[in-house]
Amino acid sequence: MSTALPVPIEFRLPEGWLPARPEGAGVPDVAFAAVHPRPDAGFTANITIDGGFPKDGVTLAEIADASVERLRTLAESVEMVHRREVGSEDAPALTQRLSFSAVADGVRHELVQSQVYLSLVDTEDPHKRAMIRLALTATRAQHDEVLHQFQEFVRTVRPDSGAVS
After folding, report:
1. How many domains does the chain have?
2. CATH code for position 146
3. Is the pTM of this model over 0.85?
4. Are 49 and 127 in contact (CB under 8 A)?
5. Strands 76-87 and 46-52, how do they pair?
6. Distance from chain centroid for Cα 153
7. Which of 25, 44, 60, 73 would give a disulfide with 117, using CB separation of 3.0 to 4.6 Å?
8. Distance (Å, whole) CA 32 – CA 41
């Protein structure tokens, strides 16, 4: 069952990517999922979005650490390949890349997941901050090919202004 985001956002999917039911994409605990049109070795690259309201004082790095630990309960050989804090004091963000081995549809895949954590002000209560996680999961062989599309996608993510165009 998909979950709701803590704050509304808007974004534009990369060309060719298709929205998918999170349950159908194998990621039921996310608010949004999209899949790449061309699977690699039986695994379909996907982009997911989820988020929540972290407790006061919890940093994006601590949230990212918890994500790594959660993945370790689902996959094997989880390794953090890269992590970097980006953004500004007013709009902090964190990126990290994980590599791991997991079984999907009975087949073991060597996967890479690029994650972006964004801290956004809650539009209903400006004293609260929401966290949005954007993730790209792909096979090791396909990851670099789709990474630039994910980066383009990340650049389009912003709070939803509610304006109708």
Report:
1. 1
2. 3.40.1000.10
3. yes
4. no
5. unpaired
6. 11
7. 60
8. 24
**Domain presence at residue 164:** no
Q: Under a CB-based contact definition with an 8 Å cutoff, are residues 20 and 35 in contact? A: yes
Is 23:12 a contact under the CB 8 Å cutoff?
no
Which residues face 107 on adjacent strands? 104
The string over 33-53, giving b where at least 16 C-beta atoms fall within 10 Å of a residue's C-beta and e elsewhere, is bbbbeeebeebbbbbbbbbee
Q: What value does the mean pLDDT of the chain take? A: 90
1 in any annotated domain: no
Task: Tell me whether residue 87 is in a domain.
Answer: yes
Please tell me the distance from the alpha carbon of residue 52 to that of residue 35, in angstroms, as a whole number: 23
What is the domain range of residue 66?
A: 9-159
Mean pLDDT of 48-73: 94
